[in-house]
Specification:
single chain; 220 residues; alpha/beta; TIM Barrel; 7-stranded parallel β-sheet; 7 strands; 15% strand; globular; binds zinc ion
């Protein structure tokens, strides 16, 4: 079992087309994949429409599940609920929010706005995550990301500690922009353990939480 719901293609700043990313993830042993290119109000609609076409292709010819998502990135914190709802109306399966990474000037308040929003599925790389933010995510069911991406991963140790205390659920994602970022089952395990998760917590973080997300995103 290998899941990853936060990846990028050349529709934002990744290097692969959606279908090549899908192909390489299948080869690496993925059970399902989420594509979540950086968007704001300007590109939301186009990205969802274009990724959907390759997701349909992968489902039809390879019987492989691709969640068509977006990553709301550097948008005003107060606009997150509105944009997340708009993404879902436009057919997005899942919404990732680009959290307050320790290495980028993300607007303060972004973590909390994402954690409080039921239309958001994943708060990515939240950096200096607070107990209040994690408690809000525990309430709404927003998953908090443990990331394998360099730079963003500086926050992983704190994220695990705060989520554990607040009862927030976690998920491991790659935030892939390059072929070399794509996970393998062994690398996902190593990222989780290095972040401070215990062996006993791995089944929940690497399998149960991704499966919960997949069920939530299943369209009738
Ligand atoms: Zn991000
Ligand atoms: Zn990203």
């Amino acid at each position: 079992m290998l899941y990853d719901f936060h990846t990028h293609t050349f529709l934002s700043d990744g290097v692969l087309s959606p279908i090549e990313l899908i192909r390489r993830c299948i080869v690496n042993g993925y059970s399902a994949l989420g594509i979540s290119d950086h968007v704001s109000a300007s590109t939301l609609e186009r990205v969802i429409r274009e990724v959907s076409l390759d997701a349909e292709l992968a489902a039809r010819y390879w019987n492989f599940r691709v969640l068509v998502g977006v990553e709301l990135t550097h948008v005003p914190a107060a606009s997150i609920a509105e944009l997340a709802e708009r993404a879902k109306e436009l057919g997005a399966d899942h919404v990732v929010v680009h959290g307050e990474s320790p290495v980028e000037p993300v607007e303060p308040g972004t973590n909390l706005a994402a954690a409080c929003c039921p239309a958001v599925d994943i708060l990515a790389h939240p950096g200096l995550l607070t107990t209040d933010e994690a408690a809000a995510a525990a309430e709404t069911g927003v998953l908090i990301e443990v990331t394998s991406k360099d730079g963003h991963s500086l926050g992983n140790g704190r994220v695990v500690r705060v989520c554990r205390e607040a009862g927030a659920r976690m998920i491991v994602n790659s935030d892939s922009h390059l072929p070399g970022h794509i996970l393998t089952p062994e690398f996902a395990r190593r990222v989780a353990l290095a972040a401070g998760l215990t062996e006993a917590e791995l089944p929940e973080v690497l399998e149960q939480n991704p499966l919960t997300l997949l069920r939530r995103c299943s369209k009738p």
